[in-house]
Amino acid sequence: MTAIPVVIVSTNALIRGGIQQIIVQPETRIDVTGMFASFSELSAFLKDHQARVFIMDDSLPKGVNLSKELKRLIEAHPGLAVILILQRPTPSLVQKALAIGVRAILHKDDDFQRTLNQAIQLAVAGGVTISPRVSHLLEKQQALPEDLDQRDVDVFDLLTEGLQPKEIAAYLGVERKAVYRSIKKLTTVYDAQNLPQLVVLAQQHKIRPLKKRE
Questions:
Q1: Domains in the chain: boundaries
Q2: What global pTM score does this model have?
Q3: Distance between CA 127 and CA 203 in Å, rounded?
Q4: For 130-188, how does the pLDDT look when each residue is reduced to its tens digit (9 = 90+)?
Q5: What is the pLDDT of residues 42-64, one digit of tens each?
Q6: Which fold has domain 150-205?
Q7: CATH classification code of 4-138
Q8: Which of 109, 9, 112 is closest to 54 using CA atoms?
Q9: Measuring CA to CA, which of 13, 20, 34, 198 is 20 to 30 A from 81?
């Protein structure tokens, strides 16, 4: 049986090495053919080399739009099965990733010794894997307050994580002006006077509760 060629992208060298150590085992028949810190390095590699599976986390160089880069990559290499490991799995990002053809969405706190190789094998076979932690996030979505949509709530949640509007736009794969529209709506719902006050409220309340409407 031929080994499955796998490429890995993460800005963190320790994460790249850790993923390689987990998936390259005598019984797995997996060959890590390249590890990179950016999409540009990966794209250059794929011009002259073949890969069957692409594993990446959501650590991104500045200015990189995750969804757009993944969409471009999948369109350029339709036979490449993408596995995404998320630290901040917002519902809108998960839904967008699945829509563009990502084959597996895992959570950074998953037991990769147990799940990662399974996800690789299933992705190669054409299946889809969603981490139970990510599924739980989607299942526990609550009814949104009036005038807010899921993107607005995701923006609020990412503000809690300390991301700036530019970083949020890249992470969610949207224009920066869309993030500012969400922030404007959120400041109204939360009675915040400005973005710094909204960030404080986000840190206090995480994603909920929001103020009650009269």
A1: 4-138, 150-205
A2: 0.72
A3: 37
A4: 998 888 777 665 556 667 888 888 888 888 777 888 888 888 888 899 999 999 888 88
A5: 999 999 999 999 999 988 777 78
A6: Arc Repressor Mutant, subunit A (1.10.10)
A7: 3.40.50.2300
A8: 9
A9: 13
